[in-house]
Specification:
With about 375 residues, the chain is an alpha+beta fold. The chain contains 8 helices and 10 strands. A hairpin with a 5-residue loop joins strand 3 (about 125-130) and strand 4 (about 135-140). The longest helix has 26 residues, at about 15-40. Decomposes hydrogen peroxide into water and oxygen; serves to protect cells from the toxic effects of hydrogen peroxide. Has an organic peroxide-dependent peroxidase activity.
Length: about 375
C-alpha cells in the first residue's frame, strides 16, 4: 500500500543523532571528570596520596626501596595469646582463646633509614595478625598517647611546615610556630612532647593505636574502641636513648630477645557515649572500661631488608570480621598513603622502569 502524501516518516535526521551523541559524550566526560578529580589530575591543589607522600620525601630525601615514613625499622615475629575476654565485644577470631601468629615491625618516624636512633623521641610498632581462617588484622601503633592533628590536610601542612631548611638542616622555627598557632588541636600533643622521655629500648615502650575503631559482637552491636599494648618488661633506672651508637635500639632488641621472649598486654578501651570517635587529637577519660584481651609475645628478630616484615604494607584498614573502621579521616588517608609508598618502594626494588619515577612525580 502506498503512503498517504500527508504522512511523514519518523524523524531520524542529523539533529536527533547529534543530540544522542551529545548525551553519550556528556556522560563519558562526566565520568572522566569524576575520575580526574578523585585522582587529583584536574584539581592540582587537592590533597592526594601522591602529594602527601611527596611531602614526606621532600623532608627526608628519597631512599630507594625503603618506606617513605618509618623507614628505619626491624622485623619481629611471635604470636598473640588471646584469653577470650574481648570475644564478648568482637567476633574476630584473634580474640578467642588461643594463639595467632604475628609478623611485626619496630620503627622510627621519618624517611631516613640511616638516622640515629636517638634522633626522634617516638617509636612505632606495627603488627600483622593472621587468624586460622586467613583473615588478617593489621595495626600501626605509636609510642605516644595522642596524635597532633585530626585531618590529612593538617598533617600535610605540618609536614610542609617542619621541612628542614637545606642551609641549616633544621625546620624554620617561624614556620613551625605559625603552624601550631593555626592549629590549636595540637595542644594535647605539644603538652605531651614537652615532657616525653623516650626509653632506650623498643621493648619497654607502650604503643597506642590512636585512631578509634568499632568492635562488632555476635548480635551485630557496635562499640567504639581504642587499643594499646603495655610492656611487661621494664626499663632500667634513668635509662633513656642517649647512647652514641646510631643503632642502639635494634641492638638492644636483638640482645633482649636472645635472652627471652618480650611481652605486652593488649588492652582494649571501650568508649562511653559522647566520647570523640573520629578525632585522634582527643583522648578518652582514664576511667573508661578497659579489657585485657591477651598477651603479645615477640620472640624472634630479623633485619628489615630480608625479614618477614619487609613486604608487608601495615595498612590499618585491613581488618577481620568483628572490627570496623570509624569515620576518622586519618584512617583512609593512612591507607592510601601507605599504598602509594608501597608501590614506590617495591617498584624501586623490582627495577620496574618508569613506575617509581612517575609515582614520585605524583602523576
Amino acid at each position: 500500500m502506498e503512503r498517504s502524501s500527508s504522512s511523514q516518516p519518523p524523524t531520524r535526521g542529523p539533529a536527533r543523532g547529534a543530540w544522542r551523541w551529545t548525551v553519550i559524550g556528556g556522560a563519558v566526560a562526566g565520568v572522566a571528570v569524576a575520575f580526574g578529580y578523585v585522582g587529583g589530575w584536574l584539581a592540582p591543589a587537592r590533597l592526594t596520596p601522591h602529594r602527601l607522600v611527596n611531602a614526606l620525601q621532600a623532608n627526608s630525601g628519597v631512599y630507594p626501596g625503603f618506606r617513605r615514613n618509618h623507614a628505619k625499622g626491624v622485623c619481629v615475629t611471635g604470636y598473640f595469646e588471646g584469653n577470650g575476654a574481648a570475644s564478648e565485644y568482637s567476633i574476630a577470631q584473634v580474640f578467642k582463646a588461643g594463639r595467632t601468629p604475628v609478623v611485626g615491625r619496630f620503627a622510627l618516624p621519618g624517611g631516613n633509614p640511616y638516622a640515629p636512633d636517638s634522633s626522634v623521641p617516638i617509636r612505632s610498632l606495627a603488627l600483622k595478625l593472621t587468624a586460622p581462617d586467613g583473615e588478617q588484622w593489621r595495626t600501626g601503633m605509636n609510642a605516644m598517647p595522642v596524635f597532633p592533628v585530626a585531618t590529612p590536610q593538617a598533617f600535610y601542612e605540618q609536614t610542609v611546615a617542619t621541612r628542614p631548611d637545606p642551609k641549616t638542616g633544621k625546620p624554620d622555627a617561624a614556620k613551625v610556630k605559625a603552624f601550631f598557632d593555626a592549629h590549636p588541636e595540637t595542644a594535647a600533643f605539644r603538652d605531651w612532647i614537652k615532657g616525653a622521655k623516650p626509653s632506650a629500648s623498643f621493648v619497654t615502650e607502650r604503643y597506642y593505636g590512636l585512631n578509634a575503631f568499632y568492635f562488632v559482637d555476635a548480635a551485630g552491636k557496635r562499640r567504639a574502641v581504642r587499643w594499646r599494648v603495655e610492656p611487661e618488661q621494664t626499663a632500667g633506672a634513668g635509662e633513656v636513648a642517649t647512647a652514641s651508637d646510631p643503632d642502639v635500639l635494634s641492638q638492644d632488641l636483638t640482645r633482649r630477645i636472645a635472652q627471652g621472649a618480650q611481652k605486652w598486654k593488649l588492652l582494649i578501651t571501650l568508649a562511653a557515649p559522647g566520647d570523640p570517635v573520629d578525632d585522634a587529637t582527643k583522648v578518652w577519660p582514664a576511667q573508661r572500661t578497659t579489657i585485657d584481651a591477651g598477651t603479645l609475645v615477640l620472640d624472634h628478630v630479623a633485619p628489615q631488608d630480608s625479614g618477614p616484615c619487609r613486604d608487608v604494607n601495615y595498612d590499618p584498614t585491613v581488618l577481620p570480621q568483628g572490627i570496623q573502621v570509624s569515620g576518622d579521616p586519618l584512617l583512609a588517608a593512612r591507607s592510601a598513603a601507605y599504598a602509594d609508598s608501597y608501590l614506590r618502594r617495591t617498584s624501586e626494588e623490582a627495577g620496574v622502569a618508569g613506575v617509581a619515577r612517575l609515582s614520585a612525580e605524583g602523576r
